[in-house]
Every structure is written in C-alpha cells, then in structure tokens.
C-alpha cells in the first residue's frame, strides 16, 4: 500500500470514529438531562384526556340532535310543498 493511501485511510477512519463518538456522547448527554416523569403530571394528563373524551361525546350528541332537527324541518317543508301543489287551482275561465 502506498504511504499516501495509508495516510488518507487513517484520516478517514479517524474522522468517522470521531463523528460516531461525538454523536454517541450527544445522545447519552440528552438522555441524562431528561427530567423524570412527574406522577402528578400523569394524573393531570389522564384527567385532561377524560375531559376531552367527555366533550367529544357531548359534541357528537349535539351534532346528532342538529341532524335530526334538520331532517324534521326538511320533511315538514317538503310536505307543505306537496300539499300546496295538490290544491286545486281556481282559474277563472
């Protein structure tokens, strides 16, 4: 192997090893700096999730009531239109 090729290979391997070690240190440092999970925060999140579920259920009920009311109103309007068309027209002859 040519000494210049060996030098390039050593530099390349060294730079790759340095990058891997730096990234590993960074990841380990981030994990060490993470705060432990607070049990009170977990309880708050559970209550918040329950409240959001309850609100979603109520909104679904409101939406279903609105759909029902809209259907009734459209049926009543259709019946009035049908009744108006069925009335005999009195045109003077």
Description:
It is a single chain. The chain is mostly helical. The chain has 2 domains: about 35 residues; about 45 residues. It is about 85% helix and about 0% strand. The longest helix is centred in the C-terminal third of the chain and has 48 residues. The radius of gyration is 37 Å and the shape is elongated. The mean pLDDT is about 85.
Descriptive key words:
2 helices, 93 residues, mainly alpha, elongated
Task: Supply the number of helical segments.
Answer: 2
Summed over residues and divided by their number, the pLDDT gives a mean of 86
Helix and strand run: HH
Radius of gyration: 37 Å
Write down the overall geometry: elongated
In total, the number of domains comes to 2
| Class by SSE composition | mainly alpha
Span from first to last CA? 118 Å
Task: Let me know the largest β-sheet.
Answer: none
Topology record:
Blueprint: H1 3-33, H2 39-86
Q: In summary, what is this structure?
A:
The protein is mostly helical. It has two domains: 1-34; 38-81.
């Amino acid at each position: 192997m040519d000494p210049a090729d060996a030098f390039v290979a050593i530099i390349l391997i060294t730079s790759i090893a340095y990058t891997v070690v730096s990234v590993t240190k960074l990841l380990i440092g981030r994990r060490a700096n993470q705060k432990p999970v607070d049990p009170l925060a977990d309880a708050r999140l559970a209550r918040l999730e329950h409240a959001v579920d309850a609100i979603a259920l109520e909104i679904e009920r409101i939406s279903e009531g609105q759909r029902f009311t809209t259907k009734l109103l459209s049926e009543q309007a259709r019946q009035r239109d049908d009744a108006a068309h069925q009335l005999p027209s009195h045109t003077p002859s």
